[in-house]
Amino acid sequence: MTITITAFERSPDGGKGLARDTRVRWALEEVGQPYEVRLVSFHAINEPAHLALHPFGQIPTYEEGDLALFETGSIVFHIAERHAGLLPDDADARARAITWMFAALNTVEPAILELARLPLVEDRVRDRLKQLSARLGSADWLDGGFSAGDLMMVSVLLRLKSSGILDGYPNLAAYVARGEARPAYKRAFDAQLAVYTGEPPTG
Ligand SMILES: N[C@@H](CCC(=O)N[C@@H](CS)C(=O)NCC(=O)O)C(=O)O
Asked: 105, 110, 81: which is closest to 95 by C-alpha?
């Protein structure tokens, strides 16, 4: 029975093997099963014909006669069950191999995917800082005298201090420093720190 999988005709990784059809191809190669590939566009994955195979409009899919599968975990598991070479015969060892499949998909892959999203998140933060920096200009505070607006904005920006991102926006770095220099901020900071040091606040 012919096995047909789907893959992107233009993968965003430009052929680095990161698209998930690669793991299905790999499993099929390991067990020596020939297969065909139907290349699909980003548009086609949301068309009814593809959605009938994959309800979430993704690749890869796997077709073998009347059987249609999606999700690489289930596809690789199916291949491994039907052909020798990917799952041990011993029942316990088999269960452990399956455990590692779940670990890869449920525990390790989500964390790695977050890392891949990091550059996008950083771009978004820099956009916001650029806008805020333009708005603050050479003023001390956002709208005349110090207000609750500055209290909140400085509190939020403080989270970026250790990242070094603020260094690219000198007026924002100075704005945060002005906030931190306020006696009331120092008192608040010392009071929360005292919870950990056991020392009474100095202010
Ligand atoms: N959990 C799915 C994830 C499939 C997936 O995210 N596929 C990507 C390509 S590697 C895709 O089709 N992305 C397009 C989209 O989600 O719109 C699996 O393991 O098969």
From this structure: 81
Q: CA dihedral in degrees (129, 116, 19, 108; nearest 10)?
A: -150
Q: Which of 145, 147, 169, 146 is nearest to 157 (CA)?
A: 169
Amino acid at 72: T
Q: For residue 60, which atom of ligand 1 is closest to its CA? A: 20
Give dist(CA 141, CA 122) in Å, integer.
25
Whether 13 and 2 have beta carbons less than 8 Å apart is answered as no
DSSP string computed for 132-166? HHHHHTT-SSTTSS--HHHHHHHHHHGGGGGGTGG
Q: What is the pLDDT of residue 26?
A: 96
Place of tokens 């548009």: 43
55 cis-preceded (ω within 30 degrees of 0): no
Ligand 1 atom 1: residue of nearest CA: 71
Q: Rounded to whole angstroms, how far apart are CA atoms 56 and 138? A: 49
- Name the residue of 23, 41, 58 whose CB sits within 8 Å of the most ligand 1 atoms, as the mutation to test its pocket: 58
For 154-196, the pLDDT digits (tens) are: 999 999 999 999 999 999 999 999 999 999 999 999 999 999 9
Nearest to 19 by CA among 49, 45, 48, 55: 45
Per-residue model confidence (pLDDT) at position 171 = 98
